Amino acid sequence: MKKTAVLVVLLLIGAVIATGCIASNSTTPTKSSSSTTSPASSPTTSSTKSPATSSSSTQMEKSYYPITIKDFANRTVTIKEEPKRVVSLAPSITEDLYYLGLLDRVVGVTGYEDWPPEVKKITSVGGYGAYASLEKIAELKPDLIIADNAVFYKKGFLESLEKIAPVVIIAPQSIDQIPQAIELLGKIFNREDRAKEVIDEFNAKVNAIKELTKNQPKVKVFFVTWSKPLMTAGKNTFINDVITIAGGANIFNDTKGWPQVSAEEVIARNPDVIILTPHCGMTIEEAYKLFAGTNAVKEGHVYMIENENDLIHPSPRIIKGIEIVAKLLHPDAFKTKYPLTIKDMANRTVTIPKEPQRVVSLAPSITETIFYLGAGDKLVGVTKYADWPPAVKNITKVGGYGAYANLEEIAKLKPDLIIADNAVFYKQGFLESLEKIAPVVIVNPKSIEGIYKQIELIGKILNREEQASMVIAEMKAQISYIEGLVANQSRPSVMYLVSTYNGYWIAGKDTFADSIIKIAGGKNAFEDITGWKAVSEEEIVARNPDVVIIASAYVDPKIFCSGPLSTIKAAKEGRVYTVSDPNVFQRPSPRIVLAIREMAELLHPDLFKYQPQPLVCSANTTANSTG
After folding, report:
1. DSSP labels for 602-626?
2. Residue 417 included in any domain
């Protein structure tokens, strides 16, 4: 996964630095991404003007063309007749044409486009800008080619394109120039009325976001474009424009382009929000460690954007990116309406009278989820078992987990919301006592899908729906990557062991542990058992698992070195593993993707070039086990 991410990001940064796909002294981005977003507008996709073609309209077109225009490179270009077959050499240009209702005139694209979905059906010309294939372009017999400054990457490439068809350069260098690009394209295609509609809607949405955030405090933002070396976006970049319009202040606005910075500089400038992207080479967990001490980490305001192309493609699509960032920086300006009535995961109807500001979490997994949603600053109480992120050490402890929490301590904190899991049912009457203090919402994920539902529900309750959708999207992307890697591999049978107290406690079906095994390319040796159950040595020997995963720091793997357990295949082959952090495996929070990755590495080490530590038994215990 890391190699793929590095390759994609190197392609992006190479294009960005050369063309400034984000910098205002350069041009469009080249990076592709897998997610799909909605357009800022909903233009028609008809290929010609809405009225049916008639002799009068044909005459009008004849009188409209030829036209001569000045493009963004200050070149004079004459277009002799209405373009019907267009090749686009930049993803942002393809998006512009979609907004103008002209996508079905596009016969060739770069192959890096990720939106709109229909673009996947269009022929790829093999690359972005000057890296496109001249032969493929010529085969499509275009009557117009539209590109950005990336066509200047190779000397003579533009001249070669001009031998095929007229070439127009569209290269906005700031958000303010996006309407100019739409206006020029509207003129080229005799779609000036439609262009005006798109521009008016674009400007209206930009102004609406500015209006919503104008009275909000300027939030200090650090945007990670790459991790090693650590790089960010300076001024004169599209990302800087997005942050500014969204009501933020780029902490490196005093730099230009793509500066390399140090973690110490970031900590010294103390951002309130840190924004990552799926291909920046840094996870949320790594950001929490690297930038510890910043307000962003202390308050849990570290976010993973679902799709960086929403922020860097200079087309009307960028409105989506501005909206995302604005909601992250100023969630209060985009408030959910309260009172809010929801159904929790225990099928209870709960009404929340106002946006929660003082929240008590009665499960470490819930605490982690709240931090992932950027709402860690709302937490006033957590259980004594909460240990991630490090900022939880400064939050008041209310005692044990679930029904073992201290009611008096909870009441002292005067919460306006309590979030718990099914552990509140461990003591009769405990839930009723909690409800006398504040509204109580129960979450109870039993699978990966259940974790998604938990994230979505907590996001809705805490007015963090945008963040919830991003967290879920990032989880799905990482899981999809692993599923793709292991898809064609044999599936070893797996025993997932969590305790040896009064039996061997294993995970059956309808557990998130079972989901981890399946996604990671394994088969649960106890898939016919529902939930968590204590089984006997005889049952384990009978099922003879290929691999044993111990998700507990209190289970000694050496129990598989002697006695009946030493006869199973996993023990004989040394494939009994204790996971690096049992909490990551046992807690149904977004961190579960780390467990899935580690499980996949243990089950399929060759795929990940991973060398797990095998079970090693002493000669004496082995001799004893064999008699």
Report:
1. HH-HHHHT---------HHHHHHHH
2. yes
**pLDDT, tens only, 287-310:** 999 999 999 999 999 999 988 999
Verify that 545 and 511 share a domain, yes or no. yes
3-state secondary structure of 173: coil
Sequence length of the chain is 627
| Res 619: pLDDT | 60
Selection from 517, 524, 570 nearest residue 546 by Cα: 570
Closest CA to 181 of 105, 92, 266: 92
CATH of the domain at 502: 3.40.50.1980
| Contact predicate 495/526, CB 8 Å | yes
- When pLDDT is cut at 50, 70 and 90, the band that residue 562 belongs to is very high
**Cα-Cα-Cα-Cα dihedral sign, residues 280, 283, 288, 292:** negative
User: Residue 247 region, left (φ>0) first, then alpha (ψ -120 to 50), else beta?
Assistant: left
Owning domain of residue 157: 40-201
pLDDT at 330 over 50: yes
Q: How far is CA 323 from the centre of its chain?
A: 15
pLDDT tens column, 417-467: 999 999 999 999 999 999 999 999 999 998 898 999 999 999 999 999 989
Q: What total of structural domains would you count in the chain? A: 3
Domain boundary among 437, 470, 503: 470
End-to-end Cα spacing for the chain: 45
pTM of the model: 0.63
For the record, the structure tokens of 87 come out as: 């090749």
